Amino acid sequence: MSIADSHDSGHCARARAGCRRPALCSVGWKMSGCRLVLILFLITSLRGSGAIPPHDEVARMARYIVHACDWGSVATISTHPPVTGRPFSNIFSVSDGPLGKGSGQPYLYLTPLEISVQDMEVNAEASLAMSLAETDYCRKQKFDPQSPLCCRVILSGTIMTVNKTEIDFAKESLFSRHPAMPDWPHDHGWYFAKLNITNIWVLDYFGGIKTVTPEEYYSVKPEYEGNLTGGKKS
Amino acid sequence: MSIADSHDSGHCARARAGCRRPALCSVGWKMSGCRLVLILFLITSLRGSGAIPPHDEVARMARYIVHACDWGSVATISTHPPVTGRPFSNIFSVSDGPLGKGSGQPYLYLTPLEISVQDMEVNAEASLAMSLAETDYCRKQKFDPQSPLCCRVILSGTIMTVNKTEIDFAKESLFSRHPAMPDWPHDHGWYFAKLNITNIWVLDYFGGIKTVTPEEYYSVKPEYEGNLTGGKKS
Fold this sequence. Notes:
Two copies of one chain form a homodimer. Chain A is an alpha+beta fold. Chain A is 29% helix and 22% strand. In chain A, strands 1, 2, 3, 4, 5, 6 and 7 form a seven-stranded antiparallel β-sheet that branches. At the A-B interface, strand 1, strand 2, strand 4, strand 5 and strand 6 of A face strand 1, strand 2, strand 4, strand 5 and strand 6 of B.
């Protein structure tokens, strides 16, 4: 069997064995040996740039994505006809902290006029997905947006209003990354909110979705390099 | 009353009056007169570039966004513990046609191994959101991802397998925009799917969400310029 024919190469078999929930392996990608060597070389050489953690450091990868992206898609259960009771996707600006000072906690700037926010007032359960497709990373590496190598994180939890002890950091986090926000219409009832995270799934490599606990997520030490552009295109 | 003080300028009042569902106006943005004149100038001058339709041509705008973007966020109702029954957001590559030949019909390339696809097998109702934040447009115009000027479309409907009469176009649509797809693992059960659209909401300007009927959406003639990059960054 040549390298090109070895679909079930040792690396890929180990990746699948490492998948914590085989039933949930969203993509059990198998690669020819030559392509795998090339991709590993690319990832290693890119890793030398320092911008993205190793794919097997999953908690750190989750923190990296959350900090690099400055917007995400939020899913709610709609309360608006004709899609009442159905899943609903919308776009929100997000920040977990000023550049280089990410906390892992995604903050949002919300108005009761927003249809998804009206959904949250009835059912605060939500899911926030962020992908490096929002940055230049995937395009520069020629990773398709749906490829596992175009890393993404999916957070689930409940949307909550930020309390007084946290409001200063929420404000600094959002306004530093979204300088237009302070000038948004002052009579729209804007308030600072956050996603109280209960579930974290990461897809950053072959072998399927990986779970990170909130404890692992918040305790890991992210390593932000000087070339982190925080979602902005270079 | 000076221009700067005229929060309820004639333009903004007309915009709100034109909001088809005042109760759903997600952002009834009001602008000072000077800022409004500046933004109108910017939008008009950009319009001269031909790439984006006028904001009041809402069906055409919806078609523009769907064609310009090559990925989106799909919301489903999760069937996976511990988030069973909750809204779930995920990232999918999308295409409504080869560049310059958009049909308005979003096609997807799905595998039963994908967790969201497993959700769809139980409940095919889904929402697909696409935003010009995925392209260079919003960044170049300095529009925050959550600003109405960073145009987005939210489609609701059901995910269906593409039938035989449509499969060739679905394949051409997806593979021309996502050249990696044909090489994705052949044993993953990939199939061509589409979102059967029943509801279309567009946010592309101040004054709130605007509704487009599927009939309006599919019958409008999109005008694709030679400089349409289809989601790819210039």
